[in-house]
Amino acid sequence: MAEFHGVFPYLVSPIDSDGRVKSGVLGRLIDDLVAAGVHGLTPLGSTGEFAYLDGGQRDAVVRATVEAAAGRVPVIAGVASTATADAVAQAKRYASFGAAGILAILESYFPLADTQVESYFRAVADAVEVPVVLYTNPQFQRSDLSLDVVARLSEHPRIRYIKDASTNTGRLLSIVNRCPTLKVFSASAHIPAAVMLIGGVGWMAGPACVVPRQSVRLYQLCRAGQWVQAMQLQRALWQINEVFARFSLAACIKAALEMQGYDVGDPVPPQRPLGGDERRIVAAALAAAA
């Protein structure tokens, strides 16, 4: 079974005015990210606006990503639903498209008990033969993964990773201590170098789309134990995270990519694109991180 580590940019979903996926634009972005040294790609994460796409658009994004990656790096496709059966169907489709792993996301409307949350993720992992990454983000999810549920799910043979976007680094250390078989990916809500220091294996984050070479260099410094140099670079890159946290993440990443020459289009409505003042703030952050 594949082993994942390193920098996995959360890809944007370029959509034209007719609702079609701009596969050519996505392909060019992926070529440049791979050339920059990223270790994998994650379509349909938060930056990929999965919550705003229909099933056909999601399928098209995953297909285009797998095709453009062409086996050079693994693709971990995001699966998200409020219904277990739909999540299982998505996971099976994306694995059949060639995704090397699944990022499992639970959406919910009504609150769910721990047993229901656990059963959702187990069903997704039972449905595929590829590694599964648990995703948790209590800022946006109505039903979160408790530490007890994470510990039980870590015993599943295909649930090998977790991406925790809680901003609680102590929680990450608790996961590392309680779940020795579960490998941790940082989110942009955490400080990646700090997560690497406590045992993380990399990060999955939207900002890596716009600063891929710097992100890869940071990972390399962490892996080499060069913590002083790593933190110097981390402090510079953190300005990107601070700016992107002020506005809609997808809108920020898409605006930044357009500044870099990628015609990714606007965020999917009812989200709005950044205004002029906001774009200037993003541009300044990009220049400072260059």
Residue-averaged pLDDT, rounded? 95
Return the string of H and E elements: EHHEHEHEHEHEHEHHHH
* CATH H-tier superfamily: Aldolase class I
Global shape: globular
How many whole angstroms does the radius of gyration measure? 18 Å
SS elements, strand count: 7
What is the spatial order of strands in the main beta sheet?
A: 1-7-6-5-4-3-2
Coarse structural class: alpha/beta
- How much of the sequence lies in strands comes to 5-15%
Gross CATH architecture = Alpha-Beta Barrel
CATH fold-level label: TIM Barrel
> What is the highest CATH level, the class?
Alpha Beta
N- and C-termini, Cα separation: 36 Å
Helix content: 40-55%
How many domains would you count in the coordinates? 1
- The count of helical stretches stands at 11
Plain-language structure description:
The longest helix is centred in the C-terminal third of the chain and has 18 residues, at 227-244. The chain has a 7-stranded parallel sheet. It contains 11 helices and 7 strands. The model has no long low-confidence stretch (mean pLDDT 95). The chain has a single domain (6-224), classed as Aldolase class I (TIM Barrel, Alpha-Beta Barrel). The chain has 290 residues and is an alpha/beta fold. Helix 4 links the parallel strand 3 (101-106) and strand 4. Helix 3 (84-97) runs parallel beside helix 4 and helix 10 (249-259) crosses helix 11. It has helices spanning 23-35, 55-69, 84-97, 114-127, 147-153, 169-178, 192-197, 212-223, 227-244, 249-259, 276-289; strands at residues 6-9, 76-81, 101-106, 132-136, 159-164, 183-186, 202-205.
